[in-house]
Write a structure and sequence with these properties.
The complex is a heterodimer of chains A (398) and B (144).
Chain A (H helix, E strand, L loop, with lengths): L1 H26 L4 H8 L2 E14 L16 E10 L5 E12 L9 E13 L3 E11 L30 H5 E12 L3 E12 L3 H7 L7 E4 L1 E11 L4 E15 L7 E15 L2 E16 L2 E18 L3 E11 L8 H5 L9 E14 L2 E11 L14 E12 L1
Antiparallel strand pairs in A: 1-2, 1-17, 2-3, 3-4, 4-5, 5-6, 6-7, 7-9, 8-10, 9-10, 10-11, 11-12, 12-13, 13-14, 14-15, 15-16, 16-17
Chain B lengths: L2 H23 L2 E5 L10 H8 L13 E4 L5 H11 L3 H12 L8 E2 L3 H10 L3 E6 L8 E3 L3
Parallel strand pairs in B: 2-3, 2-4
Antiparallel strand pairs in B: 1-4, 1-5
Classes of the chains: A mainly beta (398), B alpha/beta (144).
Chain lengths: 398, 144
Amino acid sequence: MIASAFLRWSNRLRCRCITALTVAMTAGGASSAQADVLDTVQVHGFMSQALIMSRHNDFFGPSSQSGGSLQYTEIGANISMRPTKDLLVSAQVLSRRAGDDNSDYEPKLDYGLLDYQFVTDNSRVLGVQVGKIKQPFGIYNQTRDVAFTRPGILLPQSIYFDRTRAPALSSEGVSVYGEEHLSSGMLYFQAGLGKANTDNNVKNTIWDSRVPASIDGALSSIGQIGYEHDSGNIIAALTVAEANIDIDGPRAAPDRYSFRPIIMSLQYNHGYWSLTGEYALRRQSFTGGDHDDHITGESWYIQYTHRFLEDWQWLLRYDSLVNDRADPKGRQFEADGRGAAHSQFARDWTLGLQWNATSNLLLSTEYHHVNGTGWLPKDQDTSDQYWGMLLFQASWRF
Amino acid sequence: MPKGMMILVSMVVLLLWCGRVAYAQESVVLIANPSAPIGDMTRETVRAIFAMRQRTLPGGEAAHVFVLPDKHPLHERFTKEILGVYPHQLRLSWDRLVFSGTGQAPNEVGSVEEMRQRVASTPGGLGYLEKGAVDDSVSVLAVE
């Protein structure tokens, strides 16, 4: 039912976009070159639905109740075209529900950009992007909502957690990128400047108070450099970012929140198996008013995936989050009466299985055994320290 | 070395050698539309173009990439022998571009014959064929 509604919706979208493009092209005087441009139009989309069943704590809806939670849905569709040989124009809308977040499935612009490649020769590619751009934050961020690009149903939450996904996900601005072809592999970089995105989740995370305040994204930056050895057998990358958010609250309250993560990523690909590790230092600060508070969190995971029988892949991952390196077990946090010690860390063992039933249908399941609630929503700080969850997901794309 | 072991080792060597011969006979080659000379391309450039990260050919023309389905044996051989990656890895890199707005998917063709025809009729067209299946309608590119 949902699938057929989505098909109708995406077909309508496709028709409208193609009609709009055709009208635009005809208005400019049709020629064979413009007909070629229409040939470059592509429409793609995806849809995934998960069932989450958990013990003790809730994740994305009332997952610990009998029957579990179906409140994890991702639906997206995009269109792209190449008006000239150097230029790519693309946009994607995303409707994502994760627990209470976006319970009415409101679609939002996920990205919308112009990508111009001004150098493309045998030794290098250089390009610039303008618009709403997905951030190259670690290995998985840019397509984190597309199940087909994830090794499991959930990404390692210590680095790709949901609470503050908006500023990490995308920004409105400009970005330059390049790749240098070497005899041994490829060196690449991307650097962007723009306005950080915010949402209610971010607000609740950084402004944990009943006193009214509003937040707004400020000028932020991100840079990633990386190296792919051979044909990507070894991938190493370093991401440095600074996301700034202005807080408009009462006097003496901080007026600026800054998130300045450094992420180191390393992946070894051996055809049918991969070993991936990422380590992040997450520096956060509240400044202005009477405040000059700094906290540095630490996240890392190590993940093994193995593809077998061609269409099956299993995954084993250990993922660790510490909110404050100065108080890794949360003892001081609890002694200060700010909440449970176990809300300050999370150690997650994940075992997962994926099956590409067809090239467009992916069925996944995974089990998490977690110690700590560091990446659960804040209203669950009173919850159990040890908990687990079992997830199933069906994903379809075109 | 015992006699049985000698025979076994000889058989393995012979099999490996035969495998190499078969491999050499059916080699897969990179083909292009003959309208504009592209010149030789480096392996990294071929990878960048087939991974859909690079949109124009070194000669300046827009690249139009044609591929067979992921499970087609020729596609598998092309990705492994020329690009040095497995089809599922290539598919993942396409998905990452397509769903982040930074690239497009390649044009998928249903058969080897369609591959030849589409590359031959599309300026800037790039694809692959078995060496023996190449005719005058397409040009063969050397990969440095």
